[in-house]
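Much of our argument rests on the idea that a fold can be written as discrete symbols. This step matters because it turns folding into a mapping between discrete strings. The record that follows shows the chain in one-letter code together with its fold in token form.
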Amino acid sequence: MARPSSTQAVMQGKPPAGFMPDDVPSWGAMLSLGFQQVLTMFPATVLVAILTKFDVGVTLLASGLGTIVALLVANRRIPMYYGSSFSYITVAVTTMSLYAGDCFADPATVYCPEGVRLVQVGILGTAVLEILVGLLIMRLGKAALDRVLPPIITGSVAIVIGIALSGSALNMAGGLNPAESSVNWLVAFITLIATVIFSVYLQNRGLWGMLPILFGAITGYLVAFAFGLVSFDPVAQAQWLRVPAITLPAFEDPRAWGAVFSIALIAIATIPESTAHLYQMSLYIDALGKELGRKPFEIKNLIGLNLVADGSNDIVNGLLGGCAGTNYGENNSLMAITRNYSTAVLLTAGGMAILLSFVGKLAALVNTIPVAVTGGLAIYLFGVIGMQGVALIQSEKVNLFEPRQLAIGSIILVLGIGGNLFMPAGIYPFQVPGLFPDGIPAIVFSALVGILLNLVFLIVQPARFGVKERENVNLS
């Protein structure tokens, strides 16, 4: 006889072992579990908005609405919460610095609508690419995609995305103000050390372990306040309720079409990340299903649908003016800890995020965070993005003793990191009319060269010339 579902267990007054995706908890459980999801996504999602000069309220609105849309597109089969992606920070900042120079000229600027409107067009391009790739996988399978975008490309691009941001992180840590640099560096390093300590020593501590960024930011904020770097005047002037500053994509601006190509290409790094999250969630959900005597959901087979849902979320971001999104590993970990995979809870969390987006004083309070604090957080987080690329290459057992793999990876790293740090404005002087009239951004250029080189090896295979692939050394 089958065991009762989690929903039935609640109705019978028994403590549930967990909630499967199609379970609907009681209102009390749904609200409390939903609030935990919002609390978990909040620090990182808001931090991306701060770093890229996007409106905090719109970012929260798009996060909530985008999550709801993605869940409905996936027919509530894939439990994911969507927040702002760190992977798109580099190209967003590059695009806004190139075409809307005033955005980052003054550290007091917290929102730059001109630059946001340009980036929105690129985010919509990302959405289209994710949906097309998802549909392609649904038709041809993931193996076809892996041939064109093998782990050496996706991992190397992820490394470039993280490390290329190092200059921006250090500039923010210095506070962008030479007169206060010593104080700002002190605040930044205290924030950095506190965040690292929280991320290491709060592991496996339930909800507490999901919030190292929040705790690190609070620590840095308190230190910055003690040094007189925090002003609450904007909070006092802000209204309690306000309509988020929604903007329309700048389709009419010819500069935006270069942003489409640049920003959409970053999906090269985020698609494997999203797929890895799907595999992880599938294991946890089916393990709970087995314990409950329920049929396995096997969402690991829904790779294509998952990417279509990702793209649907980014359509919302692109249309409203929210940061480019991704499904959050932090929220996935929270679901694994609480054993709650109910899509009803995630829909509730999305609704909460939408409501929070209308709280004007909340957005104003977030914008009082000194740039030195965000710089301290950025040193850690940008480095983590790069190390995740290393982890992807390692986990996929990429053969780095093989000259083809070494060539692709090394060229992407040097062209991407070196170009972003040392080329004027991080731009290669190869002008493409209509797309890159001022030159090709370094990250985009490195990814394109890597993809083209891999295609050469696929078309003209070394095996035709009697070349044998070198054996991968297993040191374990």
Observations:
- The chain has one domain: 25-140+168-389.
- Residues 113-140 form the longest helix (28 residues).
